[in-house]
Amino acid sequence: MTLLNALLSEHIRSQVAFALEEDIGSGDITAQLIPDNEEITATIISREEAILCGQEWVNEVFSQLAGHISLDWHNKDGDLIEANRPFLTLKGHARTILTGERVALNFLQTLSYTATVTHQYSQIVSDSNLTILDTRKTIPGMRQAQKYAVTVGGGKNHRFGLYDAFLIKENHIMAAGSITNAVSMAQNIAPGKTIEVETENLEEVALAVKAGADIIMLDNFSYNDMTTAVQKFKGQVKFEASGNMTKEHLLKVAETGVDFVSIGALTKHVQAIDLSLRVSQEKS
Questions:
Q1: What 3-state class would DSSP assign to 89?
Q2: Pairing assessment for the beta strands 215-219 and 195-199 based on DSSP bridges
Q3: Which domains are assigned to the chain?
Q4: How many angstroms separate the first and last alpha carbons of the chain?
């Protein structure tokens, strides 16, 4: 699965339009304190080291505001930006720059955080075959953006929604009557779609493998049970570890031989990167 397609560009346009309408409403009354003909130069810095993400959202903000703003990016998405060094210089209409400032920074600080924390997780297991995955635990309305940020940080996307792959969990199994029934029904409903089954013990793993699942989620398994599952069914199915996957656990999880680890914290525990827009003392 990949997010980097033409649909993302259209999503960015609509997302930015909504964010600007939400913020500006009937008009930026504070910006009217500034003479309409005033031109300025401004820079954006991060007060902490981070992986930059959100360039196209910022470009779209100032494109939609149509204030003839020049944006000079000194870094690109995926770059490690240093603390207190400008990574973007803006020149042009003062009112437009200050009106778009907050919306632009909101996108940048949120997406850069997701990219940064994903990068941190990915670096821990960079010498292994373990793939870092995101989840559907995203900020409402921000899923495509956050999933893009995960890829910028070096992770991969799990399913995007309820439509592109099956993830059969405990309640689905109960409703279907068994793991075997659930997998069989999924194969009939949407042939060709990936079928993943969440399991809680080795007995359920065996049932899911026999039923024909493509991926088996090992939910809150011990390291020993993860290793046992992988060794017993290696080559028959892919394995995904899930549940309390902190940075401290990753190396031990990688040693079990599982293929993937899904981490909800990448997109749900968002702590904004500390960014700041600074206007030069000299007017442009």
A1: strand
A2: parallel
A3: 6-121+270-279 (3.90.1170.20), 126-268 (3.20.20.70)
A4: 45
Both tokens of residue 50?
Answer: 């981070």
> Which residue shows structure tokens 């009939």?
188
Distance of CA 88 to the CA centre of its chain: 22
Q: In whole angstroms, give the CA distance from residue 207 to residue 213.
A: 9
| CA 274 and chain centroid, separation | 18
pLDDT value for 1? 36
The residues annotated with a catalytic role in the active site are 102, 137, 169, 198, 219
pTM: 0.93
Cα 125-131-135 angle, rounded to 5 deg: 120
Rg of the chain, C-alpha, whole Å: 23
Helix axes of 247-255 and 94-124: crossing angle, nearest 10 degrees: 40
Beta strands in 47-120 (DSSP E): 50-51, 70-73, 80-81, 86-93
List of residues 6+ apart from 186 with CB closer than 8 A: 166, 168, 193, 195
pLDDT along the chain (284 residues), means of 10: 63 96 96 95 97 97 93 97 97 96 98 98 95 96 95 96 96 96 97 97 97 96 97 96 90 96 95 94 54
Is residue 42 a contact partner of residue 283, using CB atoms and an 8 Å limit? no
Report the DSSP beta bridge partners of residue 132. 261
DSSP per residue over 238-274, as a string?
EEEEESS--HHHHHHHHHTT-SEEE-THHHHS-----
Structure tokens at 269: 């525990």
**Number of Cβ atoms within 10 Å of the Cβ of 226:** 21
- Beta bridge partners, 262, equal 133
Per-residue DSSP letter, 35: -
| Alpha-carbon gap, residue 67 to 87, rounded angstroms | 21
